[in-house]
UniProtKB/TrEMBL annotation:
The gene is gmk. It holds the Pfam family Guanylate_kin. This is Guanylate kinase. Signal peptide: none annotated. It is found in: Cytoplasm.
Length: 220
């Protein structure tokens, strides 16, 4: 039952305002981070995807401006020159970068952002914005399952799949740099775990600076 007690010396209302979180998902290619990202974006209205720019060709079904900003090498290089990226890296022979644009402003206003980026980008974001960054590494249950997922996704040639599998071990070696590690065996279970991490991180005491006057009031 709710507590209906009132007092003349009303406490300041709790101010739940906080800075936004940079919620990063990384994994070897094919482990499922795009799938988990889409599930999270569909289930949680308070988080928004950081849409990367890339020089990689569009896959069937991908939409410019939604999945990626697909740009030419020249445009990407001009963005690097113009200091337009928060971070950028070369992955599997193509360039990928996080445009700064709205992200810094959004974080200040309490907007959470989801990043589907590799370990190189994660290291760069951690160096720049340690306190806002939460990192999650997704592992496949086995390397056989990983290859099977890349093959059944059917969006890359056998050659590209081979190159992604060759890189998988090197990428997995970065797992210890992450705050959380989740195995994506059953996709629904993995999603629930990732969502729980996000929920818990939102309540981390160090983010709840808006509660300070309220807590001081409680302590009298
Ligand atoms: N738990 C799972 N069990 C079986 N298949 C899965 C599971 N999770 C994802 N998949 C499938 O595996 C394929 C690869 O997933 P996804 O594209 O999300 O991987 P990714 O980590 O984002 O890869 P990339 O880094 O190449 O973008 C997709 O076809 C997806 O539907
Ligand atoms: N450092 C960054 N890595 C990124 C970015 N956007 C995507 N990625 C990573 O690239 C690989 C390949 O992605 P794919 O869509 O071609 O399969 C994957 O690990 C992504 O996480 C970015 O902006 N910066």
């Amino acid at each position: 039952m709710a507590d209906t007690h009132t007092t003349a010396d009303a406490l300041p209302s709790p101010n739940l305002a906080r800075r936004g979180i940079m919620f990063i998902l990384s994994s070897p290619s094919g482990a499922g981070k795009t799938t988990i990202s889409h599930m999270l974006l569909g289930a949680d209205e308070e988080i928004q995807l950081s849409v990367s720019a890339t020089t990689r060709p569009k896959r069937p079904g991908e939409v410019d401006g939604i999945d990626y900003h697909f740009v030419t090498e020249a445009k990407f290089d001009a963005m690097v020159e113009g200091d337009d990226f928060y971070e950028w890296a070369e992955v599997f022979g193509h360039k990928y970068g996080t445009p700064k644009g709205y992200i810094r402003k959004g974080l200040k206003e309490g907007q959470d952002f989801l990043f589907d980026i590799d370990w190189q980008g994660t290291q760069q974001l951690k160096q720049k914005d340690e306190q806002d960054v939460v990192t999650v590494f997704i592992l496949p249950p086995t390397l056989e399952a990983l290859r099977h997922r890349l093959e059944t996704r059917a969006q890359d040639s056998e050659d590209v799949i081979d190159r992604r599998m060759d890189r998988a071990r090197a990428e997995i070696s970065h797992w210890a740099e992450y705050d959380y590690v989740v195995i994506n065996d059953d996709v629904d279970e993995c999603f629930v775990k990732v969502r729980e991490i996000l929920h818990a991180e939102r309540m981390r005491r160090t983010r709840q600076t808006g509660l300070i006057p309220f807590v001081r009031g409680l302590m009298g």
